[in-house]
Amino acid sequence: xxxxxxxxxxxxxxxxxxxxxxxxxxxxxxxxxxxxxxxxxxxxxxxxxxxxxxxxxxxxxxxxxxxxxxxxxxxxxxxxxxxxxxxxxxxxxxxxxxxxxxxxxxxxxxxxxxxxxxxxxxxxxxxxxxxxxxxxxxxxxxxxxxxxxxxxxxxxxxxxxxxxxxxxxxxxxxxxxxxxxxxxxxxxxxxxxxxxxxxxxxxxxxxxxxxxxxxxxxxxxxxxxxxxxxxxxxxxxxxx
Length: 240
What we know:
The chain is mostly helical.
């Protein structure tokens, strides 16, 4: 009996040692690829910063090393950007539109996702799928109709024209993301809250939003990215 226990203990130690070794190699491989991808994605920003700190002569001189600054750091490019261009106006316009669009998107998406994901009613599944399918419609297909609508209501070349247009691109996908997060929350939380006398809005703000906070953050980042990267409508709207 004692010999059997000793053999079993030795076998468990070997298995544990093998598992620990496998985990160590998996951790090393994970860090290796993480560092590799970080370097890969940081190369373009590094090249952009290095180029912006060079003089015009060094940038035009193709024989120099593009990855280092040979003739000294200069801030002339930034001076020209801020003093002799409309960059600050464009930045202000983008900031105003982005903040408004993200706020509207998250309010509408959270409320819509909560009603479609947790408050089951007839046709809720079909409606949720339809919301997602609207995101698949190309922007180029909606460009002319949206432009005509904005022009007809007198919002062309205004902040409100952009604030009302961009949620049509961000709300459907953000709502679809939030539906998945809300549906993953255990049903017992709803039942416990209803037994305690909580209403639907109380459940949303005290239970679902804190639990689904990672999904809300992901949807916020998506709305922010889409609003900043999609310049199709900014080419038409010239805000002052």
